[in-house]
Every structure is written in structure tokens, then in C-alpha cells.
Amino acid sequence: APTEPPLHVVLVCFPGQGHINPFLRLANLLSSHGLRITFVINLSTARQMKSLPQPSPSAGAAAVHFDFFEDGHDEESIKRVPLDQLLTLLEHAGRKALPQMVQNYAEAGNPVSCFVSNPFIPWVSDVASTLDIPCAVLWIQSCASFTTYYHFHNKLAPFPTAEDPERDVVLPGMPLLKHDEVPSFLHPTTPYPFLATSILQQFAHLANVFCVLMETFEELEPEVIRHVSTFCKVKPVGPLWLSARASAGPGDLIQAENDCVGWLDGQLPGSVVYISMGSIVAMTAEQRAEMAHGLLGSGMPFLWVARPTMDEGDDADLGLPEGLEERGKVVRWAPQEEVLGHVAVACFVTHCGWNSTLEAIGAGKPVVAFPQWGDQVTDAKFLEEVFRVGVRMGRGDTWTKLVRREEVERCLREVTVGPRAEEMKENAARWKREAEAAVKAGGSSERNVREFVEEVKKRSVRRKTETAT
Ligand code: UDP
């Protein structure tokens, strides 16, 4: 009998660094289980990516393949499309392109067994159900954020409103969230209500989805995962970066020549502060100055990922104080996985994007949490009060509120030499062990991945039988 082609899973990715990284990692992970993977993204973003790993000929059919759909932009103009327009543009282009892609794959002998979609492109599950192909979601934020959005969407709990903007939110399996710890897109004062609309659409589409893979692990968020499991088929499979390290950031959208690791090699163990605000947030000039003086005041060497704001423009000078770079290194982009894993790094000043949060947890580094918007404020609460690996710097509307140099310095001291520093370090080291155990053979996340693969297999067999009869 002819050999069956491997199961073919198509991952459709939203063009943001925080989406590309976990999707590439999931692609690698699933392909290591013998699945054929196609990673789909819009063409102009694909052109921005540093180097798309090509499957080696020896990898055979079960490897990661790439496919792109036209979005009518080039790699420069796509960066300037406002987010709300980008969401609509991708939906139009993607709804048109996906069915054709599916047909092409089938004609080439690789029929699609399953789609994996993403919170910002909920329409993928529509396309999948029209084509009668099973669809799963990779939720790339915490389970805590998932349940918060879910409860908001289904009006299952009171949230802050224009009349009562400071209301606390109480949800099952969750610590109480103060109003400024609720994902900011849900807050009545958010300047980005369309982001909430888009993320929440996901929940309107949940019925179309047979499984929600989550970039978290059972030991990290046990109560909330248990509660979410009562209404939704969730499978925590993270930290994906630990189980499927993507070598040298092939999906990096920002490129910068520098030798961060070489520089860290020359620093003492446990001496360096690493500062990064992820791929989107940029500090204002005023905030950069306060950060710079805070770093100088702390006396610690530092590796700082800093870029000008959109308004300042890509080529603007950062205007950092004289003499700063004698004490540390300032770069536009760093290989974050390697940096966090480096022995020289003592702590991480982070904007608390969920990828960065899980990277800190998996690397066992204490944090200074400096959240700005979205789920970052919720992640910061968990880092400080639940995971207990750091302190939160600044509160409230951090977009407009300046965090002063004294506060920067105080936080750095607290996580490195203060009376609670040792405890935070021990907690961080414990989370690293838990994260590693979760992705090892027999660990909770590894088991969930295997169950997912089995489920895809079962559904694929069932569809074949149905088609045959
Ligand atoms: N990242 C990186 N180098 C940098 C800054 C960020 O490799 O200099 C990576 C980081 O490791 C993470 C992703 O970019 O995987 C950012 O995702 P996150 O969810 O933390 O934040 P976002 O960029 O979505 O705000």
C-alpha cells in the first residue's frame, strides 16, 4: 500500500514579533513529532524576517514549510499601516488566499489536516469551518488573560466601566485584579478599543475551534487553568521556547548587528541588568533619560535594548547621557533567549509581554516589571504577587506617567541586593526547574502536545472515513 502522507498542520500567524516567535516555536515542536507544518504569513512581513529556515532535503515531508499571501504592501509600507487597518487588510487578503492555498496543498498530495490560528486573526477559524477542516488556536498570552477576556466577552463578571472606572475584578481561579491590572484594552479609558474587539472575536469563534493550545504550563497557572478547563478544551504546551528553541531568531523583524553575547562573556556572573521593552514599545526621550540615570545610579553594568519612538523616527539619535556607554551596552535588538540564559545577567527590566514573561520564567531570572498596556499589566501582577520573582516599577497609566530615576534605582536594588532579593532569586530558579520539567518527556506540556497530535490524527482519520462513505 502507498505510504500515507504525514499529517499536515497549517499555522496562520499574525505579523507581530510576539506572535511570530511562539508560532515558529510551535512549528518546530510539531514537526519534531513527525507532522508536516506550513507556516503561513503575509508576504510583506515575510520579507522583513531575518532568515526563514528552509527545510533541509533530508528532513523529508515532516518539516516546516513556508507559504505567504499577498497583502498589497512592501516591507517598508506595511510597517506604517495603523493596527486597526492592518487587521482588516489581513482579513480581506487572508480570506481570499487561504482556500486557494488549501487547494494547492491538496493537489500537491498534502491535504490539510488542521489549522492553527491566532487571537488577532479569528476569521481563520471561519475559513477552516467553511472548508470543513478542524481548527485549533494558539493562545499566546497567559491563561489568566484568556479567562479575563472570556469573562468580559460573555459578560460573566462586572468590569470597570466609564461610570465606575476603578472597580476591582473578581474571577474564578484568579487573584483579585485591581482596575489597572485588568488587560488595558478592556478598560473604558483604552485608546485601542478595536484591539479588544478583535481579541474578543476569538471568543465568539470558540465553538469553531476544537482545542486551545496555550503558551503557558500547568504548574505555572494551576487554578486558572483548572477553571478554564471547565468551559474550554485547553492544552498548555509551553514554554515553547524551551521545548523548541528557534536557533538565532530566524523570525526577527528587527535586525541589528552587535555582539551581545560576546560582551556578556566579558562580564562577571550575576552582574548585568538586561533591559528590553519587547518589539513594539519604545520609551519616550524623557523616560530614556530617567532610565539611563537610574542605571548609572545603580552602579550595575547593563545591556539595554533601546530604539527611538515612532514619532522620533528610526534614525533618530537616542540622546543618552555622556559616558553612559562606558558603563554598559546599548543595542537596538538583542538575541533575547541567549541573553536571558547567560550567567552574567542578574535581572531583567521587562515590559512584561507574555513571551518575555515566560522567557524570564524559563531562564530563572528575577524581574523589574515595567508594563505599559494590554495584558502586560496583568502579567506584571502575576510576576510580582503570584510567581513572586520581582517588583513592579511605576503604576497606573504608564504611557503618560514618567518613572523617575530614583524609582528605577530602588527597583534594581530591591531585586538584586535588597532584603527580598535572595527569595526572588530562589523563586526564579524554582520556576526555571518547573518550566524545564514541563517540557521534558513525560512533563505536563510534553504530554499535552502528544495528546494534541493524537487528536489531529483521530480527526483526520474520521474525516477520511466520512468522505469515503
Ligand atoms: N525580543 C528579542 N530581542 C529584543 C527584544 C525582543 O528577541 O531585543 C523577542 C523576545 O524574546 C520575545 C519577543 O521578541 O520573544 C517579544 O514578545 P513579547 O510578547 O515579550 O512582547 P511584544 O513585542 O509582543 O510587546
UniProtKB/TrEMBL annotation:
<dbReference type="GO" id="GO:0047213">
    <property type="term" value="F:anthocyanidin 3-O-glucosyltransferase activity"/>
</dbReference>
<dbReference type="InterPro" id="IPR002213">
    <property type="entry name" value="UDP_glucos_trans"/>
</dbReference>
<keyword id="KW-0328">Glycosyltransferase</keyword>
<protein>
    <recommendedName>
        <fullName>Glycosyltransferase</fullName>
        <ecNumber>2.4.1.-</ecNumber>
    </recommendedName>
</protein>
<keyword id="KW-0808">Transferase</keyword>
<dbReference type="Pfam" id="PF00201">
    <property type="entry name" value="UDPGT"/>
</dbReference>
<dbReference type="GO" id="GO:0080043">
    <property type="term" value="F:quercetin 3-O-glucosyltransferase activity"/>
</dbReference>
<comment type="pathway">
    <text>Pigment biosynthesis; anthocyanin biosynthesis.</text>
</comment>
<dbReference type="InterPro" id="IPR058980">
    <property type="entry name" value="Glyco_transf_N"/>
</dbReference>
<dbReference type="Pfam" id="PF26168">
    <property type="entry name" value="Glyco_transf_N"/>
</dbReference>
<dbReference type="GO" id="GO:0080044">
    <property type="term" value="F:quercetin 7-O-glucosyltransferase activity"/>
</dbReference>
<comment type="similarity">
    <text>Belongs to the UDP-glycosyltransferase family.</text>
</comment>
<feature type="domain" description="Glycosyltransferase N-terminal">
    <location>
        <begin position="8"/>
        <end position="67"/>
    </location>
</feature>
<dbReference type="InterPro" id="IPR035595">
    <property type="entry name" value="UDP_glycos_trans_CS"/>
</dbReference>
